[in-house]
Amino acid sequence: MRRLKHRVGLLPLLVSVFFLSAVSAETALPQLQAYEVPADWRTPVKPLQIADQTWQIGSKSLTALLVKTGNGAVLIDGGMPQMAEHLLSNMQALDVAPEDLKWILHSHGHADHAGPLAAIKNASAARIASNAESSRLLARGGAGDLHFDDGLLFPSVSVDRYLQDGEQIVLGEVTFTVHFIPGHTPGSMAWTWRDSLNGQEIDIAYVDSLTAPGYQLIGNVRYPNIVADFHRSFDRISALPCDLLLTPHPHASGWTYGDKALRKKSVSCSKYAENAQRVLQEQLNKQEQQIREINDNFD
Ligand SMILES: [Zn+2]
Fold first, then answer.
1. Which of 106, 108, 147, 179 is catalytic?
2. 6 in a domain, yes or no?
3. What sections of the protein cross the membrane (predicted)?
4. Which of 18, 72, 189, 244 is the least buried, fewest Cβ under 10 Å from its Cβ?
5. Of 86, 106, 195, 215, which is the active-site residue?
């Protein structure tokens, strides 16, 4: 009886221990995750001349191009959201006042390239031109990305001119032609224009990223034709007028931005596409292998 009493007396204690341990097992919800990038993506550079009218004004490892014309200037990409003030001061250093900036063009709607476009638009006279696919990402500030979901957010911005493939933006004596090259995003774009360098006319091509970082390439319900899109884009890029290739991530086209903009190795548009195609194929092979292994486990 005494024993039984003892057992009965233990029960509430055991219940409370269980309850306490259940409570203490609750862990805090995770911190919000900032989009963190390497320091050189955020390290400003002074204006670096690429060609007579074309300047790199972004950071050491993210391209933001300013093209000066007789009728004002055009910005193509801006890097990370925190680059806005730096871009404006680099423009000022090149005698481009905010009211002289007429157009903002861009490569694709991710935070590391379109980040400061809203701030630059607000601070200047510029209008933004983009295609329908990229406009959706810009309007949502990067939310709902096909591959990153809400992982790469930036201040949202509305587009003033919706571009069709092959459309041209003319400012002063410079004509910018857009080429749709879906893959890295469905709205990815390349831009081409003419400039001069060392007394020679040159065709400049600013071609979007061709990577698929962590993307599901096979059976992706959000982007079923991603691989076919990439392959069509590789063909288009190989055929672009391209004396001088620039890319949002400069190393992809052989550039380093330091005291000067240096082209350490000259990468042609067709070589850029060929390299990207090889890397994509390796990624596809790996994903096919993983699918085979999963299927084998079910056999
Ligand atoms: Zn991207």
1. 108
2. no
3. none
4. 18
5. 215
**Using one digit for the tens of pLDDT, what is the confidence trace for 47-106?**
999 999 999 999 999 999 999 999 999 999 999 999 999 999 999 999 999 999 999 999
Residue 78 belongs to a domain: yes
| Options 110, 145, 229, 257, the catalytic residue | 110
Name the phi and psi angles at 290, rounded to 5.
-60, -40
Domain holding 54: CATH number? 3.60.15.10
In a domain, 86, yes or no: yes
Residue 299 has pLDDT above 80, yes or no: no
Domain that holds residue 224: 35-298
- Distance in Å, CA 183 to ligand 1 centroid: 10
Residue 11 lies in a domain: no
